[in-house]
Amino acid sequence: MSLFNLLSVSASGMGAQRQRAELLVENLANSETTRTAEGGPYRRRDAIFESEPQGSPFAAVFDRQLGNAATGVTVSEVILDERPPELRYLPGHPDANPEGYVAFPRINPAEEMADLMSATRGYQANIAAMTAAKDMIQRSFDMMR
Question: Which residues in the chain show pLDDT less than 50?
Answer without folding.
Answer: none
